[in-house]
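Support request, priority: normal
Reporter: lab tech (M.K.)
Component: structure prediction queue

Hi team, I submitted a job for Adenylate cyclase from Magnetospirillum fulvum yesterday, and the status page still shows it as pending. I've pasted the exact input below so you can check whether something in the sequence is tripping the parser. The sequence length should be 686 residues. Please let me know if I need to resubmit or if it's stuck on your end.
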Amino acid sequence: MGGLARRYDIILTALFFLLAIPAQYHEWFALLEDQTLSFRHQLRLAYGEGRGQVLSHDIVLVNTDEAFFKSYKSFPLRRSDIAAIVTNLKALGARVIAVDMLMDFPSSYGEDPILAKALDEAGNTLLVAQAEFRDGRFVGINRPTALLDQASVSAYTNIQSTSRLVTTLSRLTIHPELTAERGGWPFAVAAAAMYLGVEPRLENGALTLGTLRVPLDHRNNLLIDFPPLPTGIRFLSQSAGISALEFLDISGLDESERAELEAWVKDRIVLVGDTSEVSHDWFDTPVGMVYGVEIIADTLSTILNGGQLRAVSPETAAIVPVSLLLAMISLSLLLTRPLGRGLCVLGLGLGYIALATVLYVRHGLVLPVSYVVLAIIFSYLLIEFRQYMVERAQKQRIARTFGQYIPPELVAEMNRSGLNVEIGGESREMTVLFSDVRGFTTISEGLSPQDLTMLMNAFLSPMTRVIHEHRGTIDKYMGDAIMAFWGAPLHDSDHARHAVEAALAMVRKMEELRDDFVARGWKPIKVGIGLNTGTMNVGNMGSDFRMAYTVLGDAVNLGSRVESLTKQYGVDLMVTEYTQNAVPGLVSREIDLVRVKGKDTPVRLFEPLGFEDDIDDETHERLARHHEALALYRAGRWEAAEAAFESLAALEPGRLIYRIHLDRIAHFIDSPPGEGWDGVYTHKEK
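Reply from support: The job had stalled in the queue. We restarted it manually and it finished. Here are the results:
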């Protein structure tokens, strides 16, 4: 106990983590926490459940953008025209018409009576107001002009940033003290309540709208679940909005035109707002810059969807720092090696970040991140500082141990940098891929060094991207050749499938690149790709001067041989029977049964064509005929095999494999193989 009392690093570590509890409760580092929310939300948009939904179908934006004002030839929008838009929207069946245009000063043209009449006759309108705060205290609501305020319901749109340094809007705060005021509910809440025909209430930490219950955090914040936008779309109004120009005058529309507009707004909440750059009504959010009316739409969508983002309770949030504190103290007491301790602390921090990210992305559960991560960082630095002398002794022991295997200079570098350098490797089943450009010497002839470099980058970059997208590891580039493998450094039970999928994608990518290469004045590139699956040795291997993470073994050599044979058989892609058998559902054409150079054991070679769902009936029928012909050939029934291959060659005269077998059959007819012929063809070259 006395030793523990002298561990000031542990005492201060406890202080750091305990301070994280009030820090996250009062949001002392809101700016940093918002950055983690932004990161998590981007992942939620990409990988979360329901990521395909753009916006609640109940909402549509009627916006005034640059194109609108160019046609309108005036700025801002006159209130008589706002009245016309409101009247026309009502006539087209809009259930709620929410106008996000602050009109707290009388019209310069005396048009307030016109607008007031339109609002009153529509009866389902909502005007924007502003809540006023001083030193964090509510002082009043700045409503529309008296005439407009009498004609329509109003609500405030204030969404406040949690940071004093940067205006980032990610949540809507509902102020309980305002709800008793007229117009004291936030604009999005009031619009949702009007749409549902209920009165909003705050009950037990939630916003209640009839049977709809939307969770709030302990500060009555509604976390806005910003929806994804379609590819190529920057603003929500571009995909879920329609120009207000369409609703200025609908008197001259025919029946079909009116029906088309009605389909946009009937029985929906219509948000009328300004999305022009001149309005400067845009704000930073977790998904980038967003116009104010779009934030209202996102908030409204969040409410109608039941508030899918839910902050954990303060009690649950407090458990996190306490749990991580116990973990940090345990690591400090149990681990003496700095590298192991550092990795465990890194794993602790990254593990918590990963947990918080997964819960946010998949389940909409919001855990505080930045506060405990800062506590982990500061605690780790403090612990390392305190144990500096112990670290020196451990480094000396590392030097004595590793000095038996690697030069002292490399040991010294390990000590300085903290790198994890190991000799040797481990054996595991993996899949290796080799690819090579066919006729690269001919292709590169006449190219300047600069053009050749550009060509190689244009080829290697997309190929590497394909391999990475399918969980592959690039081993090395060998000029125009690529070597990659699957199953390491992370174990992958589907390494063979991922490798085959990558190889098929590489072949398709080369077809896509063909026109681009021709347009640049280059010759089209064809690649040969070979794959093999088997037991390989993988790890950091090399010399005292350079090490590389690579694979070695007979299975690797066989993969290289298979790639070199693709040219002889006239195919782009070929795999061994070991890869073929490891990928259920893979449809392939059996190419040959061969002994490759340097190997005594024969191996079957296959040309993958795709998976079951990708292959049409005609291809299946032709494959069946090919395999029947191959069976006749291996049974020594030369005339029948010859007729079968001739028939196939007539259908596909450009397929080299048929001609290869026909040439062999012709040879065997003249010079029959001896007794015990096993159908194996032995390659004499690599």
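The chain has 24 helices and 25 strands. Confidence is low (pLDDT under 50) at residues 400-411, 417-423. Let us know if anything else looks off. Ticket resolved.
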